[in-house]
Design a protein that fits this description.
By secondary structure, this protein is of the alpha/beta class. Helix content is 39%, strand content 19%. The strands form four sheets. Strands 3-2-1-4-5-6-11 form a seven-stranded parallel sheet, with helices on both faces. Helix 1 (12-22) links the parallel strand 1 (2-7) and strand 2.
């Protein structure tokens, strides 16, 4: 049974991934600063920015590195902390892999966000380090560039989609600051499938690749608000402010199709429909 270390394993994506792998003949091992829900998965607490925190972790066959500052706003508010977590934390994981007796493969969680802000720069630099380690030390490493992930009550409830869904359910106004702003929203189940296929890819010793895990179909915020209101059958009014185009490069899903045989299956409307069936504010893990 292959043992896989998941950093950030108690987070939104990491917790779903650990449960997914648990049912597929893998043994996930979580490393995080927070204790995950009690589900019988082996867990180690520590600070990813401190190399010594990783000393207690046993030898593993592979690593999925998801521990990160994952919001542009949080990175902007505390850039030094963002660089510590996203860059130095990644370097510590790469060093852990380099010095391990098993030489585990490493799959880096990255972003489709371009290096135009602190968050994007931190993830871009982490990718460059991963590619360099792969080349210089002959390690099996690749990166997955996630679109804007949504679709679970484990997501941060002050993010845009959970907030708008709760507004729609309660009939409150939905204020859209820039209805023209676009994102490649991708549902959590599709992301987990993409990671699983990425694991199979990197496990076979292929060269470093940075692979977008995205839908290839952008959704602007104005359309997103309309979908939420329509699917919720809500009386909420949508208040749109000035629309202006912002810097956005649509990630291309072609590389994931070619290398991973992966394609996102969940439409924006279907993803919102699934979320609406869950009481996000009062959700309790079963």
């Amino acid at each position: 049974m292959e043992k896989i270390l998941i950093t950030g394993g108690s987070g939104f994506i990491g917790s779903h991934l650990s449960e997914f792998l648990l049912g597929r003949n893998y043994k996930p091992v979580i490393f995080d600063a927070k204790t995950p829900p009690s589900n019988g998965i082996e867990c180690y607490l520590g600070d990813i920015t401190k190399k010594n925190s990783l000393k207690e972790i046993p030898e593993v066959d592979g690593i999925v590195h998801l521990c990160a500052i994952s919001r542009v706003k949080d990175a902007f508010d505390n850039p030094a902390h963002c660089m510590d977590i996203n860059l130095m934390g990644t370097i510590n994981i790469l060093e852990f892999a380099r010095t391990s007796k098993k030489n585990p493969w490493v799959l880096i969680g990255s972003t489709t966000e371009p290096p135009k802000n602190i968050y994007g720069v931190s993830k871009h630099l982490a990718e460059l380090c991963a590619e360099t380690y792969s080349r210089e030390y002959n390690l099996n490493i690749s990166a997955l560039r996630f679109g804007t992930v949504y679709g679970s009550p484990r997501d941060n409830q002050d993010r845009l989609i959970p907030r708008w869904i709760e507004n729609a359910k309660s009939g409150k106004e939905i204020i859209v600051d820039n209805p023209a702003r676009q994102f490649d929203f991708i549902y959590i189940d599709d992301v987990i499938e993409g990671i699983f296929r990425g694991i199979n890819y990197v496990n076979y010793g292929r060269p470093f690749e940075a692979i977008p895990i995205c839908t290839g179909t952008p959704t602007n915020l104005g359309d997103l608000a309309k979908i939420i209101v329509e699917e919720a059958q809500s009386p909420s009014k949508i208040i749109s402010k000035d629309a202006h185009q912002e810097y956005f490069i649509q990630p291309n899903p072609e590389k994931a199709r070619n290398l991973l045989e992966f394609e996102a299956k969940t439409s924006m409307r279907e993803g919102i429909r699934r979320l609406l069936s869950v009481d996000l504010l009062n959700y309790v893990e079963s």
